[in-house]
Amino acid sequence: MSDKTLSVWNPVKTDRFLVGAPHYPEHVDESYWERDAERMAKAGFNVVRMAEFAWHILEPKLGTFDFDLFDRAIAMLGRYGIDTIMCTPTATPPRWLTVAHPEILRVDGKGRPMSHGSRQHCDTASPVFREHSRRITKAMAEHYRDNPFVVGWQTDNELNTSMPESFSKATLSEFQAFLAGRYGEIGKLNTAWGGDFWATAYDGFDQVVLPIEFGPTFPSPGHLQDYHRFLAFSTARFQHDQVEILRAVKPSWFVFHNLGGLRDIDFRGQFTTDLDFVGYDIYPMLYDEFQRLGNHAKVQALHLDICRGFSGNYIVPEQQSGFGSQPGFCTLTPEPGELRRMALSSVAHGADGLMFFRWRPAHFGAEIYWMGIIDHDDIGRHRYEEAKRFATEMTALKDKILGTYVRMDVGIAGSDFDNQEAHKTYPIGLPSPQDDAVLLHQYCYDRGIACGFIHPEDDLSKLKLLYVPHWVMWKDEWTERLKSFAEHGGTVVIGARTGTRNEDNHVIRETAPGTSLSQLTGVRVEDFGRLAAPGANGLFDVMERSGGLVIPPNKPAESHRRERRFKIGNRELVGGYFYENLAIASDVEVVAAWSNRYAEGQPMATSRKIGKGQVVYVGTYLTPDLTAALAERLFAPVGIEPLLGDLPEGVEVTMRMNDDRRLLFIQNYTDQPAAIGGVPAGRDLLDDEKPVAGRLDLEGYGCAIIELAG
């Protein structure tokens, strides 16, 4: 599907809302199967996903295939009106394969081969593993070609989630071949990687090594960048092998992948264009951001908004339904009412299909306490009833929901693989572009302002403001797109350090932010430096030695802290992480200026009129205070306002829309009742189309979908 357009505004092309659960008939006695199928049908499920970890059953020894178990399971489900999505089982190769070919195992940075007994232990770059992947995919596809209940396929399972890197011999040789294809001549590689620094040049591609961490010190940023480009290329190639076979056998099947950790995958390339749509597994109570953001509703919204920015609407092949764990960790447990609310939140942020993980928990293995819709004792309790309610609602509302996109007034530049990786190659203690962007996303989320992530190559015309969070790698054609957006009335905000490195990860030789961005912004960076993180006592929260004097962090001296302050409007704020001193053109307005130390009075943030809009440059990183100050100044003039006039704390609001309709999703993510004011006139599609105007009352974890009038 190389002609596929990647856009945040794309809905999934489907005529039904897929709703169901991953299902593992191999985990229970066959006497349970019909009871499971009957209860799924009563719950309103129309699809299951299966076989992603069953290669050892499907091919118990080389070249001997046995599909009987899954044939019978699929037929049983089909009798109750439930279709099946099959999965290629390549995340868990069988033991007979790794015994015969130990060279296909991944190797970590310390030279240790991965072992059988877990998953994702084989190297997707390995030609031998790719050959076996193609073989099992072809056998399964040909077997299920004419099965009327098999409607689509999932490739592998959460590629790169457990361990994207490999340092195996296969990876090395494939990496060398990748580089030979990319550069053609070893001299070009040496130039790109800065081979004259630390004598890191090579005489031929066969000499190139893999970038080992601290071996004994840091590798070239260009070396690291190309290694991760290779991992993304290798992952896309591995998946393409499977997609090519599936499409050749039966073009009418839909094909997707379920993404987990999002590492070393280039979503703007072949990985995504090969697929009909993308799937994102969402476990709101699992992620690290839970601690930082304070609640799982915000975490879920952030993850799904980031994912939607890659290519538009998606399905959720795995949605957390209950307590989850592996031996080393566990999640919180959704309270009664939260399963349905979290599922509706996924829909509100762009899901056009959803499956609850999982139908029933396993009684053995590394996830025995990863709970599903049915409990260990084979009883369906409140989670079953909530899943049933959700499935019934989505089936009834599919014609309203499908075909709509998620509204965004504030766009954050995201989904660019090179910029994600460029930061990792040289982080120097600074927030990543995505970490910085979280502050703006959360500001908007808390106030009910439509916000999400978008690539500069996408259609920007539906936005009112676009923020670029410190993208060090910049393409001149993006500048033209930003200029056009501003000329038509949009506001562009560009963060510090944007445009300071080229595609080889070299610092540019022009004055930052580079020729095209300087011409757009009217700004040149004269000087820059590091600042303490907000709230820190020093550059790092440890005792530091300065000129032989140890200064306790709880008693910082001003000269030691080197705190930078700035004035914006009538407020004086503290800069965070990084500063730039700016020289400006005559037609540039100073929005904020540094207010202490040697830089007092020098511009920190600027604005330049471009057509009907403006381009703002900010010579530091966001802090909560700076985010609020910029929003107060920039949002109102371009018509950015909350979707609801009176949004209580603990209530989330988003909008899905198209040319025909506007659907306002309102969710109470607390266990206490909420009264929401300022609700525009419409009908609540989750409450028998009851008319709503002005005030809406929601119970704890209650939800509404208001189809707006007019």
Automatic annotation (TrEMBL):
GO CC terms of this entry: beta-galactosidase complex
Keyword terms, alphabetized: Glycosidase, Hydrolase, Metal-binding, Zinc
Domain Beta-galactosidase trimerisation: residue ranges: 441-532
CDD domains according to UniProt: A4_beta-galactosidase_middle_domain
Domain Glycoside hydrolase family 42 N-terminal: 24-396
GO biological process: galactose metabolic process
Gene3D superfamilies (alphabetical): 3.40.50.880, Glycosidases, Golgi alpha-mannosidase II
Active-site residue numbers: 158, 318
Catalyzed chemical reaction(s): Hydrolysis of terminal non-reducing beta-D-galactose residues in beta-D-galactosides
A GO molecular function held by the record: metal ion binding
Keyword Metal-binding attached: yes
Sequence ranges assigned to domain Beta-galactosidase C-terminal in this UniProt record: 650-707
SUPFAM superfamilies: (Trans)glycosidases (SSF51445), Class I glutamine amidotransferase-like (SSF52317)
Residues that coordinate or bind substrate: 119, 157
InterPro entries in the record: Beta_galactosidase_C, Beta_galactosidase_Trimer, Class_I_gatase-like, GH, Glyco_hydro_42, Glyco_hydro_42_N, Glyco_hydro_b
EC nos: 3.2.1.23
PANTHER family: BETA-GALACTOSIDASE GANA (PTHR36447), BETA-GALACTOSIDASE YESZ (PTHR36447:SF2)
Protein family according to the UniProt entry: Belongs to the glycosyl hydrolase 42 family.
Name by which UniProt lists this protein: Beta-galactosidase
Taxonomic lineage from the root: Bacteria, Pseudomonadati, Pseudomonadota, Alphaproteobacteria, Hyphomicrobiales
